[in-house]
Write a structure and sequence with these properties.
The complex is a heterotrimer. Chain A is mainly α. Chain A is built from 13 helices and no strands. The chains are: A mainly alpha, B alpha/beta, C mainly alpha. Chains in contact: A-B, A-C, B-C.
Amino acid sequence: MLSLVLRRAISAIPLLLLVSFGAFSLVALLPGDPAVAIAGEGATLEQLAEIRLRLGLDEPFLTRYLTWMGDILTGDLGSSAVTGRSITEEVLRRAPVTASVAAGTLAVVLLLGLPTGIVQGVFSGRLIDRAGLLVTAAGLAIPNFWLATILVSIFAVQLRWLPATGYTPISESVVGWAQHIVMPSVTLGVFAAAEMARQLRTGILHATEQPYVRTAWAKGMPARSVIGKHVLKNAAAPAITVLGIRLGHLLSGAVIVETIFGLPGLGKYAIDAILNRDFPVIQAVVLVSGAIVLVANLLVDIAYGALNPKVKVT
Amino acid sequence: MSTNLLEVRGLTVSVESDRPTPGRGRREPLRLVENVDLTVAPGQTLGIVGESGSGKSISCLAVMGLLPPGVRVTGGSIVFDGEDITGATPKQLTRIRGRRIGMVFQEPLSSLNPAFTIGNQIEESLRYHLGMSRREARERAIELLDLVKIPAPRQRARNYPHELSGGMAQRALIALAIACNPQLLIADEPTTALDVTVQLQILELLAELRDALDMSLILVSHDLGVIGTMSERIAVMYAGQVVETGTVREVFTSPQHPYTSALIASSVESTPKGRRLPVIPGQVPAATSFAQAGCRFANRCAHAEAVCREASPAWAVVGSADRGTRCARHKELVLPGVNTPASVDADHAPTAAGAAEGTDTEPVLIIRNLTKHFSVKRGLFRRGVVHAVSGVELTLHRGRTLGLVGESGSGKSTVGRLALRLIEPTSGEVEFLGHNLAALRRGELRLRRRNMQMVFQDPFASLDPTMTVGQSIEEPLLVHEKLTSDERRERVATLLRRVGLDPGLAQRPPRTLSGGQRQRIAFARALALHPQLIVCDEPVSALDVSTRSQIVNLIQDIQSTDGIAFLFIAHDLGLVHHISHDIAVMYLGRVVEAGPAERVYADPAHPYTRALLASQLSPAQAGQPRPPAPKGEIPSPLDPPSGCRFRTRCPFAMPVCANEVPAPVPQPGGGWSACHLEGGRP
Amino acid sequence: MTHLVDTPPTTEPVVRLRGDTVLSRLRRQPLTMAAIVYLAILAVVAIGAPVLSPFDPYDTDLRALLQPPSPAHWLGTDDLGRDVLSRMLYASRASLLACVQAVGIAALVGAALGVLSGYFGGWIDRGIMTLIDAVLSVPGLLLAMAIVGVLGSGLTNAMLALAVIFVPIFARLCRIQALAVREEVFMEAARAIGVPHWRAILRHVIPNIAAPLLVQVFITLGVAIVAEGAMSYLGLSIQPPEASWGALLQRAFSVVHQAPWLIFIPGTAITLTVIAFQVLGDGLSRALVQRNGGEHR
C-alpha cells in the first residue's frame, strides 16, 4: 500500500513541474508586449517601464521562472499586476468561500446521485430505471450557467425565498450561509450527481454480469446479500473515483457560479484577473488549481487501492 | 412414484428475440432448448455432452433458476427430490441453491469475487445456510479447503482470488459448492479452462467427493473422454434437444444416433495415424437457425433420408426406459462405436503423416540452444524474470510436421514466435533455410518472411474485422509482390478454392463467417506466398470438435500437395501424435523428450510424457482402470525448480535431479529423453 | 485426386440478416434518428442564417423593447429592440462554427498524438503522455479561460483555447484504442506477414479506431457547445454586437426581472443541441457494438 502511494506521489512531481512551467510560460504566448496589455493602449512610457520593473519583465525567461518557483515554494504566489496586493493573501481569504461551495456540491452529489444510481442499477430495465435515465440525461445536458439563471429567476426573483447574490460566512450566520450556498451548490451539484448516478448504474450493471455474481446466486445467497455485498463493493470503486475527477470540474464551475451569484471566492478572483489581463494572478490560479487536481488524483488512487485488492499488490 | 433425485421433463427454454429471423415473424421467442428430458438417481453421475449451442449449459442453469435476464422456462417441469421447482420463487430458490444443489462453473478465476478472500466467500454460505457462528464457519471453511486438497489451507483461506492459480481456484469453487453437503452437484465444463494434467486431478477429486458425500453429480462437457471417465449415464445433446441417452457403455459401444457415432469417430484416438479424420460436414447451428421441421442434424448426417427431413423425429425408447434416441432411422442403422475398427473408405484416405517415415529431407528450421527471458515488474523496485524458454534444440525437415506439445507455461507458443522472429531471443540461434534469422537486418528479415508464415489459435481475432476476406488474403501479396489488382483477385480465388471455400466469400467481412471458415481463410492467407514453413499455434483449440477434423485434414492435405513443413503447437498429445512425424514434449521452457511421433506416443520415456499421456481421456478408455493423476501443479515460470524442472511433481525424483539439468539420453526406437533415471526412463 | 473440399459450400448457410449494416441499425433507434434530424435542421439553419433570418440581427428598434413573442417577432425582441429570432439564427452559426472547428482541430491533433503514442510505445508514449497529463491536470474550462485571458477575448482565441483542452481527450482515447489494436492477434499476423509500420497504422490501426473516435467526436461536440456557451456568457468569446448563444443568455439574464421568459430561448437551444449530440454519440456506439456481435447496455 505504501509503495503504491509513494509511486503515485513520485510520478506526480514531473507533472507539477510541467504545469508550473506551462502556467508561467502562458504569458510567453502573448503576441506583443505584456506590459502594454496590462497598462492599456494609452499608457505612457514611464508607466510601461514601471510595470516592467515591477514584474521583472526585462530579465531572461529562465531566471524569472526560477525566481517565481522559488517564491512559490516559500508560499509567495506573487502580487497582482493590477492592484499590487499579495496573491497568497487573496487566495487564502477567498478559499473558504469556494470551499463552502465545494462542500455544498458534494452534499448534493451524495444526496441525489448515490440513491438514484443504486436504484437505477438494481432495478435496471424497469420503469424507474428508464425514468432515471431521462432525469440524468437532463441533468447532464442542462448547462450549469443556464440552470443558475433559472434558479435565480424562480427562487430569487419570482418567489423571493433565497437571495440572488452575496455571501455570509458561516461564522456569522449559519442560516444566512446556507441560504447563499444552496443555489450555487445545486447548480454545480446537479451535473455531478447525474454523472455519479450514471457511473454507479453502469458499475452495478457491469458487476451484475460478472461470473462471480452468478456464483453468489448459485450459493443460494438472498438478493440483499448478492447486491448489497457482492455487487456494490465492486461497483463502488469506479464510482468513488468519479468524485475525485469531478473536483477539477468543480473549480471551473466555481468561476461561473461565483460570477452569477456574486460570491467572493477563488473563481471570481480568476475571472476578474482574466478580464483585466492580470497575468501574475492568472499564472498563480493555473498553478494552484493544477496542484489541487493532482492531490485529488492521488487521494482517488489511494481510495481505489483500498477498495480493490488487486491493485494493492501490483 | 419415481425415486429419481432430479427429473426434468419436456423442458423448453426460450429467449426474447428482437432481431427478425428469416422465415419467422419478428419478436417470436427463440427456443434455445426444446423438450428436454433428464433424470438423475441418488448417488448417480449423469454426463451431458454436446457442442456449443447444444443447450447443455442452459438446461443446467434452468434447473438452478439461474437463467440470464430475458431467458425463461417456457415449458416442461423440473422436479427435485419430489418437489416441483419449475416456477419457484426467489425465496424458495435460496433454500435450494447452495444448500441442496451446488454448482461449479467453467472459468474458476472469474467465478470468485475479487473483493473478498476465498475463506470469506465459503464462510458466507456456511453462515447463511447452516447458521454457523463466525468462528465455526472459519474452521469449517479451512476443513473444506483441506478436503479439496488445497495445500496450506489455513493460509490459503486468507488469499484473494487473483493470488490463486486456475486449478486452485477451481478447487476453492468446489469447496464452496459442497460446503453445505448438497444432494446434487452440477459441474458445467469444470475442467475446460485448466491444464490437462490438472484436469484429471480435478475429475478425480469430484469422483472422490461424490463417493464420500454420497452426492449425485451432473457433469457437463463437450469432451467425450471426460464424460466417459466420470459418468455412469450419458445424455447427448444437439441443437437444443437430447438426441440419445443410455449408460456410457451402451452409448459408446453401440450408439443409436448418427451424431453420437460421428462424435465418437471424431475423437482423434479413434482414427489410426496416417488416415484422414472423419469429418462432420457443415457446422453446429445457432439457435436462430434450428430447423423447425425435421431432424436438426439432417443437413449434416451421412444417413439422412426424406423421412428425416419431413417430420421431427419423436423420442424412441430402445430397450430399457433409460435408453433412447431421437433418430427416425435408428432401427435400420448399425452405427460404429468405440470398438468398431475404422473401415478403409474414402473418409480414411492415407495422409502424408502416415507415409514417408524414412525419407530424409533437408532441414528447413534448426533451433540451437534457444533461450528467452522476459523481464517483469514485481512491486516498486523488484524485477522478476520469466524463464519462458531455456536451451531448446529442435530440427524441422522439409515436408514434415514437428509437433510441439506442452501445457501452460511450457513455452511452446514462445518457441513458435521465436522461430519466426516475431520476438527477439535472449540467446541462441534460429536458422531458417540456412540463414541465421537473428543476424538479418530488418529489410532482409521482411523479405525472408515470405517463406515462413503463421496460423494463430483464435480464428475470430486473427482476421482484421475492417477488411474483407479477400483483402486479408491478398495483404501478403500487396506487401511482397507487384501484381495488378486482377492478378491479385485471381490468386485470392485460387487460394480460397485451395482451402475448400467458395471464391465468392472474398467480398464478405469475417464477422459473418464461422470459426471453421475463418481458420481456413487464415490458412489461405498463410499460403499466399508459397512458404516453406507454417507455424500453427493451437490452430484447432478454439473450434468445435466437429470442425476440428476439417482443419486437421486440411493441414495434412496441404502438406501432401505442397510439401510445406509444419511446426504444430498444441496441448493435446493425441492430436499432435495424429498429425506429426516427430514430437517434442516441453515442460516449463525445456524440451524433456523428443522423437518419432509413433515411438513417443506408444512408448513414452520421460515421466512427464507418461503423465501427460495418462491424463488424456478418450472414450475408448471409458470404464477402464486408469493410472492416478500426476501430483501437484505446474510451478510458475518466474521461479522454476532448479535442475530438472519436473522434479517437484515426479514420482521418481532423486537428489541429483535438483542439482543437475538432465542431459538427453537416446531412446530405442528413436529420439531421446532428458531424465536422470537409468536409460532416461523409469 | 486428393480431397481438398470437405465442405461443399452449400451446407454452410451463412445467415445474412436484413439490416446488418450500421446505418440500418441506426434507423431502428427512433431517438437517435430524431437527434440526427434535429442536428441536420440546425446545420441548415446555421449555414443559411443570412437567408433565413427575417430581420437584420443588428437592427435596433428602441420603440419595441423586450416584446414577448408575437406574429411580427416570433421570439420577441431583446433589450435593444433587436429581433430575437434573427439573433438566435446568427448566434447558432457562431456557436456551431466555433465548436466544429475546435473539435475538428482537436480530433486531428489528438488522434495523431494518441495513435503514435499507443502504437510505438516506449519513450514516445511516455513523453507524449506526460505532456497530455500535464495539460489534463489543470481543470479544462479554467485552462481555456486562462488561455483566452492571455491571448485576449474573441471568437478565434476562444476556439483555439477549446481546441487545446480537447486534444487530451482525443489523445487519450486514441492511445488506448491503438494499444488495444496493437495487442490484437491480427496485428501479430500482419507482422508475421512483414507488413511495414506505416501500412499497419494506416490500414489496420486507424480503421479499427475510427468508430470509437467518431463517437467521441459527437460527444465532445456536445461538451464544446456548453464550454463555448460558458465562455461567451462570461464575455470571453465572441464580442458584441455579434453573439453566440451564451452571450445571448447573459444579456437575457441581465433583464430577467422585466422579461423572465427570455432566458429560456438560448438556454433551450443549448440544451437541446447538447442532448442531440449525446444521443447521437450513444446511439452510434450502440449500433457499432451490436454490429460487431456484442451486447450493449
